[in-house]
Design the sequence.
C-alpha cells in the first residue's frame, strides 16, 4: 500500500493505470470528491487528516491512495464495492457532520466507483484532462517568484531604510474573557506582516524561501520596527505590548532604547519568539528570558501547535506564556487529558489560543481552561464592542473600523470621526 500526495498525483495515477491496462479485470477506483465540500473542509491540513480515515479502505482494497491536485481522493485497488462507498461516506460524515454535501440520501455524486475494465477508458481520459489542466494552470502562473539569493540580501536590507515601517506595522488585541459578554484586552501584538513587506520589493522576489536569509533580514527589520514606535500615530497605548522578535534582538541597542525611552514605567513587553529560534540557541533563550524577567517583561513561545505540546519540555523551558495556534481539525478531536495536564502544569492563565476563527475555537480553548484568545473571531467581537460605543458607527462598515483600529498609520486613522473611541481599550 502506498500514498501519493502532490500536484504530480495525476501523473503517478496515470503510470499506475498504464501498468494494469492490459489486465485491469477486478480493479476499480473509488473517487471521493473532496473538492465539493465547503472551503473550510478543504484546507490542506484538513485534507491530510481526512485522508487517514481511508487507511482501512486502502488496506482492504490492497490498493493505492492518491490526493489529486484539486484535493479529491482516489483509491485504486481490488474488491472496491458499493459497501466501500458507504464506508467512505460514513467516515466523512463522522468527521464532517456539518457539511451539507454529506447530508443527502444519495451520495453517488460525492463518492463514485469506476469499475474496470468497463470504465477504464472513461476514467483514464478524465485523469489525463486533469493533468493537462494542471500544466496549463502552472503555465499561467509563470513567472513564479524566485528565492532571494545571498548576494541580494544586503541590498534588500538597505531598501528597508527607504520604507516607512510605521506605515506597515499593525496591531491585534489578545483578549481575555472575564465572563458573559465581559472582555478585557490583556495586551496588543504589534507586527509587520510578511505579505505587506513583500509588496515593498520586487514582486517576483520570494523573501521567505531561504529561511536563513529571511532570518538575517528580520533581524534588521526588528530594529526598524522598534524605532518606528517613536513616530507611530497612536495615543492610547496598551499597558502590555507584544512584539515578534528574534532572540538576538533582545540584546540590540534599539530594544534597549525602546525599553528605556519609549515605554512608560507601568508598561511591559512580551517578546514572542519562534520555537526554531529557541532550539537553535537555547543558552541565548535563557539569557534573553532572564534579562526580560529582570525588567518585569515576559517571553512567549509563539506558533506552538497543540500536537507539539507533548514534545516540548515546558518545565525546562519555563516560558512565561505559550501561544497555541488553533487548527480547525481540533474541533473534531476528542478531549485530550494530556493537553489539559500540560496546560494546568504551566498555568492555564499563561496560555493564549491564537488564530481563533470561530465559536468552535473558543469552546475548545475553554474546555481546557484557556480564557485568553486572539484571532479573527476576537477581532469581530472587539470591533462590535467599539462600534456599540460609537455614535457615528452607521457612517462606516465594521471592516473599515477594524482596518483603522489595527493600523498605526495616521492616514488610515484620519478617516475616523471618533478616534478616541477607535483606540479605546476593552
Sequence:
Amino acid at each position: 500500500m502506498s500514498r501519493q500526495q502532490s500536484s504530480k498525483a495525476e501523473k503517478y495515477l496515470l503510470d499506475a493505470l498504464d501498468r494494469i491496462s492490459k489486465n485491469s479485470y477486478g480493479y476499480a477506483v473509488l473517487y471521493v470528491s473532496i473538492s465539493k465540500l465547503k472551503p473550510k473542509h478543504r484546507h490542506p491540513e484538513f485534507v491530510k487528516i481526512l485522508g487517514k480515515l481511508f487507511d482501512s479502505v486502502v488496506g482492504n482494497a490492497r490498493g493505492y491512495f492518491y490526493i489529486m491536485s484539486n484535493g479529491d481522493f482516489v483509491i485504486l485497488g481490488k474488491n472496491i464495492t458499493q459497501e466501500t462507498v458507504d464506508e467512505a461516506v460514513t467516515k466523512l460524515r463522522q468527521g464532517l457532520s456539518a457539511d451539507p454535501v454529506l447530508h443527502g440520501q444519495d451520495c453517488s455524486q460525492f463518492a463514485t466507483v469506476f469499475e474496470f475494465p468497463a470504465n477504464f477508458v472513461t476514467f483514464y481520459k478524465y485523469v489525463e484532462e486533469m493533468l493537462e489542466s494542471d500544466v496549463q494552470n502552472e503555465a499561467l502562473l509563470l513567472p513564479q517568484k524566485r528565492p532571494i539569493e545571498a548576494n541580494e540580501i544586503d541590498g534588500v536590507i538597505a531598501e528597508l531604510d527607504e520604507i516607512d515601517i510605521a506605515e506597515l506595522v499593525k496591531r491585534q488585541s489578545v483578549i481575555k474573557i472575564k465572563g458573559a459578554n465581559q472582555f478585557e484586552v490583556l495586551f496588543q501584538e504589534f507586527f509587520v506582516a510578511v505579505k505587506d513587506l513583500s509588496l515593498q520589493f520586487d514582486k517576483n522576489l520570494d523573501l521567505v524561501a531561504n529561511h536563513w536569509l529571511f532570518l538575517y533580514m528580520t533581524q534588521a527589520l526588528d530594529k526598524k520596527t522598534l524605532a518606528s514606535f517613536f513616530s507611530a500615530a497612536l495615543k492610547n497605548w496598551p499597558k502590555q505590548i507584544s512584539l515578534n522578535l528574534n532572540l538576538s534582538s533582545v540584546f540590540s541597542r534599539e530594544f534597549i532604547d525602546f525599553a528605556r525611552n519609549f515605554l512608560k514605567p507601568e508598561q511591559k513587553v512580551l517578546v514572542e519568539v519562534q520555537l526554531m529560534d529557541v532550539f537553535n540557541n537555547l543558552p541565548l533563550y535563557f539569557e534573553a528570558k532572564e534579562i526580560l524577567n529582570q525588567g518585569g517583561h515576559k517571553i512567549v513561545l509563539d506558533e506552538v501547535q497543540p500536537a507539539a505540546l507533548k514534545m516540548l519540555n515546558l518545565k525546562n523551558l519555563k516560558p512565561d506564556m505559550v501561544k497555541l495556534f488553533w487548527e480547525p481539525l481540533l474541533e473534531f478531536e476528542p478531549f485530550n487529558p494530556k493537553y489539559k495536564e500540560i496546560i494546568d502544569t504551566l498555568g492555564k492563565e499563561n496560555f493564549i489560543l491564537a488564530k481563533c476563527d470561530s465559536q468552535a475555537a473558543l469552546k475548545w480553548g475553554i474546555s481546557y481552561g484557556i480564557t485568553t484568545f486572539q484571532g479573527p473571531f476576537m477581532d469581530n467581537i472587539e470591533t462590535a464592542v467599539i462600534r456599540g460605543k460609537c455614535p457615528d458607527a452607521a457612517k462606516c462598515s465594521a471592516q473599515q473600523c477594524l482596518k483603522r483600529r489595527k493600523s498605526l498609520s495616521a492616514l488610515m486613522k484620519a478617516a475616523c470621526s471618533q478616534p478616541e473611541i477607535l483606540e479605546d481599550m476593552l
In short: Residues 184 and 426 are 5 Å apart (CA to CA).
